[in-house]
Request: fold
Amino acid sequence: MSELRDKVLEALKRVKDPELNRDLVSLGMIREVEVSPEGRVRMVVALTTGGCPLKRQIAEEVKRAVDAVEGVSGVEVELSVMTPEERARIFGTRPKKEHLGIRDVRFVLAVASGKGGVGKSTVTVNLAVALTRRGFKSGIMDADLYGPNIPLLMGFLEEERPEVVAGKIQPPVRHGVKVMSFAFLAPPGQPFIWRGPLVGKALREMAEVVEWGPLDFLLVDLPPGTGDAPLSVCHTYQPRGVILVTTPQELSVADVRRCAKMFEDLGVPILGLVENMAYLRVEGQTIPVFGEGGGERLSRELSVPLLSRIPLEPEINRRGEPVVLSPESEAGRAFEELAEKLITAVFGS
Reply:
C-alpha cells in the first residue's frame, strides 16, 4: 500500500493548479491520502480559496490522474480549504482574502440556515456573547441585508450609528461583542432594494472599511437562501467553517439540506448543526412544538455533529438581553454548551 501511495503522489505531481501553474503536491494541496488493501484511494484536496471557480476542474483532473495509476481500483476526492496561514506560505504575503478590515481576525465562521424564521440571528448573538464570556474577543458581522436584526437583538437603539475614524467604521460594542450591521447604514425601517451585483459589492466593501481589530472569532450572520449574498461572503471572508441552524420540522430541514450542499460545493467545512426551537418545556413536560428528530436525522445524513438542541423559551428574544446571560435559563445553558463544543471543533480537544 505504501508503494501504491507513492505512485499516487507521483502522479499528482503532474496535476497543476490552473491559476498558479504549480503542481498540487508542491503547493501542499494534497491531504490525507489513504489507500485501502483493495486499491481504493481516498484523498482531500485543500483549495486555496473556498469560492474557487475551478474546483470542479481540479477535482476531475485529480481523479483522472489517480485513476490512471496501475493498481488503483477507485478514487474518492474530497474538497477542503486552506487556512490563511497556509495561503500566506504559498503567496509569500498575507493571502488575498485578508482584506484590510479583517486582517487581524483569527477565525471567520459563518452561521447559515437556508431559510428565515428559524432563529439563526438568535443563535449568532448568543454564541458570540458566550464566546466573549470565555475570554475570546468576538465580533458579529450582520450580512443579512434583507432582515438585519442583530442590532435589535443586541440592544442597540434605532438611531445609533457606528463611529467613523479616518474613513474606517469602528464597530460599536454590546455585551463585549463588536457588531456591524447593514441596519446601521439605513434609516429605521428603510429596506435595501438591491440587485445581486450591488449586494456583492457592499459585502466586499464591508470587509475593507470596517476596522475589526484583533478578534478571535468573527461570526457572519448570513441571509437565508443560497444566492448572491452567501456566495459573496464565502468568496470575500473565506470562513473557516459554517454552523447550520434548523428547527425540527421537515420544511426547515429540507432548506438546510440544500444550504449544506452549497457549502460543500464551495469547500467550506460544516462544523456542526444546531437544532433551534427543539422543544418547549412546560411544568416539567417536554412539548415538541415543531416536531422532533429533524436535527438528529440531518446530522446523521450530513455526517456532522449535532452541536446543540436549543429549547423554545418566551424570554429568548427579549430585546437587548441575550438569553445566554440568564443562568437560570435552560436555553442559556444550552448556548453555553454550544460555545464549548464550537471551541473544541475549532481548536481540537
